[in-house]
């Protein structure tokens, strides 16, 4: 089931992430109606995101235009980097280790630290010891300063001197089988869609821009969640049949293939709400 706030985040992340990017409320309603969301649900979600300081409004007469705040843009920029700028480095055999001893009265900060360490790609070696094959000390330092728990957290850069194979350590810290299954499901769903789309193009069939918009939205909405499960471990620490490269290649190929038509539809909806004449690129299949 598609929820309106994640849908809005996907839409802004794909079409209006740059400064100055804004979408009229009428355009938001029409665009997300294509995905089965009601006008009431969309307007309620927009209001909640404004109260959460993720969106801000600019009014022109009776029209309202919504753009990302700095907090909203920062959130989506980090997400875009996670999606489009995957790590591709070799492991030097060292681990970045984060340990902490946080008082019970700071439980909320402790829970937040665990959550964000997971988002950053750390795995839990034990309840209070997290590891990463990447040196993310600066990111962790910024996090603990923001949470005001710096005196309770220690960071080490170390080489493992024990007797356990590194891949066994990885299997203990990360649920790679579940991540692998998510990539497999993504490939099983979108490989046939990509093949069908290419066949239709090769046969000279017309594909409506609105259809490309809906398909690209679904593609990125599903794919954007995968990097937050996947810590992007170096190749040396991964199983031989790891599916991330195949999933990433399919995503980029299909996303780029859909881009022109999807952008045509988005632009036509934007112009319609602004009361501007529709251009040929916004309404034509030719």
Helix-strand blueprint:
Blueprint: H1 4-15, E1 22-24, H2 25-33, H3 39-51, E2 55-60, E3 63-68, H4 70-84, E4 94-100, H5 107-120, E5 123-126, E6 129-132, H6 137-147, E7 153-159, H7 166-173, H8 176-202, H9 209-223, H10 226-229, H11 244-274, H12 280-283
Antiparallel strand pairs: 1-3, 2-3, 4-6, 4-7, 5-6
Helix pairs in contact: 2-11, 5-6, 8-11, 9-11
Describe this structure in words.
By secondary structure, this protein is an alpha+beta fold. It has three domains: 4-81, Orthogonal Bundle (Arc Repressor Mutant, subunit A); 94-159, Alpha-Beta Plaits, CATH 3.30.70; 175-283, no CATH class. The chain is built from twelve helices and seven strands. The strands form two sheets. It has a four-stranded antiparallel beta sheet with strand order 5-6-4-7. Strand 2 and strand 3 (63-68) form a beta hairpin. Helix 2 crosses helix 11 and helix 8 crosses helix 11. The longest helix has 31 residues, at 244-274. The radius of gyration is 22 Å and the shape is flat.
Oligomer: single chain
How can the largest sheet be summarized? 4 strands, antiparallel
Roughly what is the average pLDDT, rounded to an integer? 91
Span between termini: 34 Å
Side by side, the strands of the main sheet go 5-6-4-7
Number of separate strands: 7
Assign the structural class, choosing from mainly alpha, mainly beta, alpha/beta, alpha+beta, or little secondary structure: alpha+beta
Put simply, the count of helices is 12
The rough form would be described as flat
How many separate structural domains?
3
Binned strand content: 5-15%
The secondary-structure element order is HEHHEEHEHEEHEHHHHHH
- What's the helical proportion of residues? 55-70%
Question: Low-confidence spans: pLDDT under 50, at least 5 residues?
Answer: 281-286
Radius of gyration from the alpha-carbon trace, in angstroms: 22 Å
């Amino acid at each position: 089931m598609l929820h309106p706030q994640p849908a809005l985040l996907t839409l802004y992340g794909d079409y209006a992430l740059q400064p100055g990017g804004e979408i009229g409320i009428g355009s938001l309603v029409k665009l997300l109606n294509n995905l089965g969301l009601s006008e009431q649900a969309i307007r309620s979600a927009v209001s909640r995101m404004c109260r959460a300081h993720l969106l801000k409004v600019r009014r022109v007469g009776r029209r309202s235009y919504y753009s990302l705040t700095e907090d909203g843009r920062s959130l989506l920029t980090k997400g875009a980097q996670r999606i489009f700028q995957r790590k591709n480095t070799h492991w030097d055999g060292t681990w970045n280790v984060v340990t902490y001893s946080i008082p019970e009265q700071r439980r909320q900060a402790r829970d937040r630290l665990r959550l964000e360490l997971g988002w950053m790609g750390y795995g839990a070696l034990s309840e209070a010891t997290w590891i990463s094959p990447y040196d993310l000390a600066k990111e962790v330092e910024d996090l603990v300063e923001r949470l005001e728990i710096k005196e309770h957290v220690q960071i080490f850069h170390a080489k493992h001197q024990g007797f356990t194979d590194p891949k066994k350590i990885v299997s203990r810290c990360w649920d790679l089988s579940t991540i692998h299954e998510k990539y497999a499901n993504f490939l099983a769903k979108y490989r046939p869609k990509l093949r069908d789309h290419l066949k239709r193009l090769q046969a000279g069939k017309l594909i409506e821009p609105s259809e490309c918009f809906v398909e690209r939205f679904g593609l990125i909405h599903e794919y954007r969640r995968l990097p937050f499960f996947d810590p992007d471990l170096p190749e040396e620490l991964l199983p031989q049949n790891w599916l991330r490269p195949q999933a990433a290649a399919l995503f980029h190929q299909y996303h780029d293939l859909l881009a022109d038509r999807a952008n045509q539809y988005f632009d036509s909806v934007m112009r319609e709400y602004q009361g501007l004449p529709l251009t040929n690129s916004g309404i034509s299949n030719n």
